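Posting this for the archive.
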Amino acid sequence: MNKLAFSRGEKLPSLDSGNMFNTGSNMFFWPIINQAMENGVIKVLREVKMSGIDLTKEFESGFAKWYDVKYAIGHSSGTASLQNAMYAVGLGVGDEMICPNITYWASCVQALTLGASVVFADIDPVTLCINPDDIEHRITSRTKAIMVVHYLGHPADMDRIMAIAKKHNLKVIEDVSHAHGSLYKSKLVGTFGDVAGLSLMSAKSFAIGEAGIFITNDRECYERAILFAHYERQGELTIPELKAEAGIPIGGYKYRMHQMSSVVGIEMLKCFPAQMEEVDKAMNYFWDRLEGSKGIRAHRPAKNSNCTMGGWYCPHGIYHPEELEGLSVKRFCEALQAEGVVICNPGCNAALADHRLFYATDVYGSGKATNFSGKSENFPVADNIQEHTFYIPWFKKFRPNEIDRYVEKFKLVIDNYKELLAGDEAKLKNSGNWALSPKNHKPLPQSREMTRFPAKSGQLATR
């Protein structure tokens, strides 16, 4: 049996070879930039059309056609599109929005700017999306909306979530930033709720630059989004109450997408379906080859469920230490890294409820914590998820021979896991990343004292 380089201090050469700056030969470089994208960006610059909206509208039209929705609005970022989605459904002062505890911060922090508060719900240990079983008991008279995040590309359980929303007359916002092209029962995620926001920044699977897009089938939501942050489009308003407010963006924001991103998006719509299909084929091949391996499970929908992972943004695995005699995921990943699998880190996003912003920070100097809902302690899955998840390579090309090299390294570590048990005391419960970054940014010390930001000094004060 092969011996682990990890236990001998013999680091193998990295498996990630190739020119990182070519236009498609490398297994991991993304996005793939083609000549049409380059030509389009140069044309926008030479014609000084960066701040126009003609190309953005063309991109929006194509995106809306792909998603089979009535309306799409390009935004300067996914964060902006999600804030506008919150405003579009009427989230405002005194309202609460339920959000999964494990997600990127931009799924929910913007609610605070609208005077609303965030209430967290636990996640499902298999899908890593919001757990429908943990939603209803968190609903109060203040609850206005549910934020559904299709986390790491995995579709959330939309049937059950929509049933809960209908029962309690709640709005549903979908954060599809990880799940471009993902299907839930053969229907694109992002088309179930009232509105959806998608990040299109350069690390995402559908990547066009620092940009985002808002989609909806609801005319009022569409017009509210225009009124809030798209002053140059207020001529499209038809609802009398909204037209009466026109003239300036009533939110005080300008969220227009710059047209260098728009023109890349127009070209990306042409090539993404084929690229997504190849990524899906590669990632499923990887997990199929590892199926039945002790200690790890694929983070993907069940076969024959008519659900898919779309572009597989930031793919992860589910880790079961009990099958490897308690071997920590940190030690497991270190062994894989020593074998040359450099794209392998433990954990995922840190639990947002642990951050002081959501229970103790006075952002606007009001004299009380801005997130008025307070901190809940009951998240049995989210509180332990760092010990049960890990990053895996994100294969952009279906090259079985190259993927097999990674598969064999995973099998090697699993077969020799007993060598790794000695001295393994790693515990990751209180770790995780505020962003999906290779670096491990640990949560801040959890003092219960409220902090605020004084208007003049800008320094943290405690009281």
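The two ends are 61 Å apart (CA to CA). Confidence is low (pLDDT under 50) at residues 15-22, 438-446, 453-463.
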